[in-house]
Amino acid sequence: MFDNCFIRGDEVDLQGGDPEKPMFEIAEPYACQECPLQDCPGLRPLEDAQQAYMQSVKQAEVSFERGDVVLKEGEETDHLFTILDGVAIRYLELEDGRRQIINFMFPGDLVGLQGAFDEALSHSVEAVLPLRLCRFRRSDFVHLIKEHPRLGFDITWLAAKEENALEGHIVSLGQRSARERVVYLAAWLLDRALATGIARDGNKLSMAITQSQIADMLGLSLVHTNRTIKSLDRDGLVEWSSREICVPDMDEAAKFASFERSEKGQRPFV
Q1: Nearest 5 degrees, angle CA 241-CA 239-CA 208?
Q2: If you count Cβ atoms within 10 Å of the first and of the last residue's Cβ in the chain, which end, N or C, has fewer?
Q3: Which residue has the higher pLDDT, 164 or 255?
Q4: Which H or E element spans position 101?
């Protein structure tokens, strides 16, 4: 979405060399009045007064590389983040290292929402694509809801849409076949990517998702995932390589997997 977002010479390491959470603060952040999300076709632009308020509470912009852990399950965080650019996964990890990917997060999504309610994080967040995030103090969101109830409503709306997405993924785990699960996930990812302007012509999304990550999301074995992806590729429903996802016919894929595409409208963001 943005050019030259992740040049390390323009960033400062905030973690003191901690390899688990290498967060870098961007030296020249966007002013909220110039936020690129304002021009994203699938997002509703903030009003002038809302932009001014978010500028007053915005702490910084930070970046993470692919594979970096942004938030860790069980930790308490003082911050919330809005994704400016990139894609992240939200996941739970068992003691033996197995993990369940819960959801994917796209530009405009709010990261660490549960921390705003004074609870330890129930999940971890990891960068799938290089991330650029706006950072806010979670304590400021109490004042935000009081002073800008419309923004407070938008946060509630985002939480409700997250639950709606989880319902679809739960149905996949419980009721859809392996082929339907893979098609549903691919169609859902492309639907979000198209709405946030990061998909390319031809319903293509440049995103390196490993087959292991797909298996973690869909509750399938790695061997079953591999066979299913090859089968769908042969049938022309989904083309899923190590670097790119392509759904040639979104309507056909949606019908096959009983996926309800997003209504034409704009998601809020803060």
Answers
A1: 30
A2: N
A3: 255
A4: strand 99-105
